[in-house]
Structure formats: C-alpha cells, structure tokens
Structure prediction request, 526 residues.
Amino acid sequence: MKTQPSLRKYECNAVEEAGPCRPCSQLQDLEVQIIQVEALLERLKRRLPSIKTERNRIHDYLVRTLPPEIMSRIFSFYVFSSGDSVDLESIESPLLLGAVCQAWRKVARGTPGLWSSLKLLIDNSKIDKSLGTRVKVLEEGFACSGSLPLSLSIYSPSKMLFHGPGGDGAAWKTLIRILDRYSERWRVLDIQLPVWYYSIIARGLASGFPNLRHLTLIPDQVDRFHPYSLFGSSSPTNIPAPAVINLARLQLNEINISWMNVVHLELSHMDNNQCLDFLRKATQVTYFSPRNTYASSNHPPEDMTPFTHPQLRVLECIGLTDFPALVRPLLLPSLEEIQYYSPLSLLEFPYADIKRLVLRSFCRLKRLLLHGNLFLREEALMDLLFNVPSVEVLTLDCPLPWNANPAGIFSLLSHCGSSSHFLPNLIQFIHKGSTVNFPWGYLVQLALSHSCEASPKKPSRPLSLVHIQSVLNGSSPQTYVPKEAVIVFLAAQGVRFKIDRTNPNDDIAGVPPEDWLHESMKHHGI
Prediction:
C-alpha cells in the first residue's frame, strides 16, 4: 500500500506582519490540495479492481449462468485439449485462465484436477535463465492439486548440444524435492531428457513411488560413464510397481522396480539380449512392443534357451533389424495379435520367422498386421497366411513400391466355400497401399460370391468388412473405382465395402481420408 504523502513545509524569509508571504501561502495551499487529490486517486485505484470484478461477474456469461462445478468441467476440457498433461507456460495453462478475472481465478485454483498432471520443459536455450523460476511455478501448481494422484512429464524437445549437465543446481534440488514430497501420490512419471540428468535424479531421490502405475524413461543415449540405479535407494516395500512401462537405452540393473504388475512393456533402442532380460522379468506382460532393437556385437550371443511366456497376447514389432534372433527363443501360447512394421530399408520380410513363432507356440492368432514391402516375395506371404487359419482380422499395409500388385491374395479371397482353406475364419480385411493397376475384378468376384447364399455343404468365410485405403503419391493418376465395381459393392449383401483415399502424410497431420467410393459414385453419376 502506498504511504500517505507528507506536507512539505516552506520557510519564508520575508518580513510581513501577517506571517508568510503570499507566494509561500499559495504553495502551501497547493501542497494540501495535491495531497488530497493523490489520496483520492489512491482510493479510486483501490476501488477499481473490485468494480472490474463485479462488472465481469455481471457481464461474464459463464460466471453469471453456470455453477462453479460446470465451469470447472469446461476449464478441464480446455486445459487438456492438447493431451493428458499441460505445460504451465502454454496457452492451455490454468494460470492463464486465472489471469482473466478474480472469479475465474477462484474456480481455477479450486479445481485440483487442473493442476494434477503437469509438464516441465528442459530447454538448452533458457536452462540457465529460467529453469529455477519454472520449477517454482511447477511446485506452486502441484500445491493446488489437493490430494489427487499426480502425473509429471519432464522432457526436452531436442538434443542438448553440450557434454554435461549444466544449468541451475538449485532448480534441480527443488525438482527432486518435489518428486520426494509427493512420492506417495505419483501415478505417472515420464522423463525424456539427455542422459546426463538421469544420474542426477537417481542420486537425489530419497524415496520410491509405491503407487506409480505408468513409468516412461527415455534418455537420448546410453550412459557408460555414470552408473546409476533409479529408485536404488528405496526399500523393497517402497519401490515402484508400475503396470505400464516404456524404456529406451537402459539396462535391467539401471532401474530398481517390481515387475510383478507390469502388463504393458515397450522397449526401444536396445539389443536383443536386453529385451529378453526385461521380458523374462515381466512375467505378467500381455502387450510387448520392441522398437528399433538390434543384435549387438558388444554383448554375448543371444541366449537361445527357449522360454515360455504364458500371458503375452499382443506382440508389436517396429523397426527391428534382427527380428529372427529376438523371437527365436520365445514360446507364446496365449498370443492373439502380431503387428510387424518392417524398416523400409529391410528388403527381406521375415514371413518364415513369423510362421515358425506361431506354429511352435501352438497359439490361436486372431489379428495380424503386416507393414512393409509385402509383395516382393508374394509366395512367402501366401505361405504365412495359409498357416494362420485362425486369423479373424488381417491388415496389409504396403507403402512401397507404388506398383505393388496384390492380385494373388485377392484371387484367393474371392474363392469361397469349403474347398478354400485360405483364411477360413477371416472377418475383416484391410488393405492399405497404392491402387495403381488394382485388381478390382477379384474384389467384384468376392462381393458377388458373398452375395450369393452359401449352401450348407459349402459355408463361406464369415467376412463382414473389406476396407481398401488407397495411398497416393505425387505421380499417382486420378483414378476412380470402376463403375461396374461401384454398382456391385453397393448391392453386395453380407459384406460391407469401405474404400477411401489418403495422402502419405495425412495420418500424421490428422487429415481424415476421403470416401473414395462416394466420390466414384458422383464421378460416374450413380
């Protein structure tokens, strides 16, 4: 609050009978008036915020018509419109909502859910200048979270081009203090930072997170110089026991957790031995996703001793350079789904290894997704599909080459009846790729065969959906589904045909595909 201005006294040296001279008297009177006006101005300024608040309350539709509970819900939709957690410096920050007016600030501060899932950016360009301030803001944010379970994401948008963990040491101490203070309340912890910071965090933590459910640790490289064990100082009864784990470039001895509750495991940028070590520990895993794994000469040869993983149901492999060596020792009797995304640089698609995994596991595979150069060895693809008769959902995603021709598989699918042993249990078929030289004739035959009533002696497969997604490139011609095929697809009974078209980057940009069957109808005047 501003102090009251004091009256300035003027000494008059003039000798007059009645006291000070006329100018001195006028100055004294002006001083009094100025003090009175300044005091009035201060009173008016103090009234201004309350009047603005009252005006906002009357004019603000949300405040005037909605109860605080509804406003809290609206605020939650806004704050988490871009994801499950929020950066307090972003435009979705609850701090910005609170800056609108006093009523909004009261609602935002009184909604713990707005502050329970936060992000912290560690950026090289401003780490020395503002990290301390941003960590304090983070601390104040979590202080508004009540007693809710907490989520924290600490990330760096790009590699930091320096060879050591510089920055504000006090800020890191504050950050570790936050982690320890709320150790019982952490549910999600996501750390994606340069490798140097993991040893700092590991050394600083005094407690484990016993209620943690989702753990992500993704350093940018392997740390061979600063050995550490995250949660290593925790007691056996206090270590994390997460259900969902996403790790990269780590070894088993660098993370001290309980594996008994893990059901979802993602591992990336590790060699096959490391992946198998983690998988042997996580005996309850139902979803396993190795990504960009490899066989390394720096480690002993892969342990080929077979071991059975009784719970694993979904195997998602992305960018593996040595898939055969990774799966060779595995027996997966509960396996229901395989998703395999081949590196485009890898010409040899591991059809035979997928087949051997399924056959030796004696599993009933229901869903199969294959992505890559699928038709370079079409006979091997057909051999795999003939050996997985239990498959109900088949997805073939062939981004290259653009002239790939899936005529063989459509020819086999067009044959119905007991004489066909090709995918007899298939319910959904999805094909994604180029439709240049596409075998529409076989698709028409497939539609006609399913429209005819199957005799009891020749039951057809239970196919109910055929989804064709045409992916364009810059030189793709503007082709439409042939008119005869459109008519047959529209009249087909027992099976639905969905045909759309998209550009290669539309999925990343979130652009929905065009309904190409509808566009073809308009083109042909149907």
Summary: The two ends are 78 Å apart (CA to CA). Residues 22-59 form the longest helix (38 residues). The chain has a mean pLDDT of 85.
